[in-house]
What does this fold into?
Amino acid sequence: MKQIIYLACLWLIATACATKQTKNTMEQATLNNANAANQAQKVGAIELVIFQFKTGVAESDGIRAMKTLNNFVSKQPGFISRKFSKKGENAWVDLVFWKSMQEAETASKLVMQSPECLEAFKVIEESSMKMMHATPVFEN
It folds into this structure.
């Protein structure tokens, strides 16, 4: 009788684990589909900005300032996504993906007219900034 109860408990545990695994797999599949849909948007232009924060700007303050740009940039026509990355001690890389070069260039002009964005740019050491737009040649 103890063996039957023991086996029944093992079966219940295995079933519960399998159900949880199935749920996790389904959730991951949903996330993968959402990511695939986002990636399906054809990237027509990549905006690359490399810069440093001004001396005396705390990293957390600089990052906070860069996050404030999301509100403006994400609302621009043609915006696909933005990736903000750190390289080394005080080197930052801002990548923005656009549907077309025209939309990327238009957004670049508009961002320079936005008081909110100009305020955020105050943390950037202007002499360190390099900015360019590029057209993707291929994607792997």
Q: What stands out?
A: The chain is about 50% helix and 20% strand. Residues 1-20 have pLDDT under 50 and may be disordered. The first strand starts at residue 45 and ends at 51.
